[in-house]
Amino acid sequence: MKKCVNNLASLQFILQVLGGKWKLHILSILYFGKKRFKELEREIDGISAKMLIKELKDLEAAGIVNRQTINTVPITVEYSLTTDGLTMKPLLEQMNEWAVKFQQTTSKKSAGY
């Protein structure tokens, strides 16, 4: 019972840090390297600038995303994964593998195989 409660607490923590519509999308883009704010905004279809700012601030506060301001005209802001954020790469890869397999399984079921 104690292990189950611990697992549930861990899952709740994960959802607290990564939950929502956009955070995993942001992380999957930053997985491949630094991005400027405008690049992120263009790559994430349907997200508003206000929501992107909020999600990036949440991820930065959690220590997963690093924000770097570059003194250019106009000021450039780049985002990247922190050292702790980089530890999520295997998790993101596993989630992707699971999604591919699950989609294949569900498409076969819906096709009657």
Strand content: 5-15%
- List the secondary-structure elements in sequence, H or E: HHEHHEEHH
Seen as an oligomer or otherwise, the chain set is single chain
Overall CATH class? Mainly Alpha
Q: Order of strands in the sheet with the most strands? A: 1-3-2
**How many individual helices?**
6
What would you report as the Rg, rounded to the nearest angstrom?
17 Å
CATH topology: Arc Repressor Mutant, subunit A
Describe the main β-sheet briefly.
3 strands, antiparallel
The parts where pLDDT drops under 50 for at least 5 residues are: none
Question: Domains counted in the coordinates: how many?
Answer: 1
The structure class reads alpha+beta
CATH superfamily: Winged helix-like DNA-binding domain superfamily/Winged helix DNA-binding domain
Percent helix range: 55-70%
The rough form would be described as globular
Number of DSSP strand runs: 3
The overall pLDDT, averaged over residues, is: 89
Give the N-to-C terminal Cα separation. Answer: 38 Å
The CATH architecture can be named as Orthogonal Bundle
Question: Can you give a write-up of this model?
Answer:
This protein is of the alpha+beta class. It has a single domain, classed as Arc Repressor Mutant, subunit A, CATH 1.10.10. The chain has 6 helices and 3 strands, in the order ααβααββαα. Strands 1-3-2 form a 3-stranded antiparallel sheet. The longest helix has 22 residues, at 89-110. The radius of gyration is 17 Å and the shape is globular.
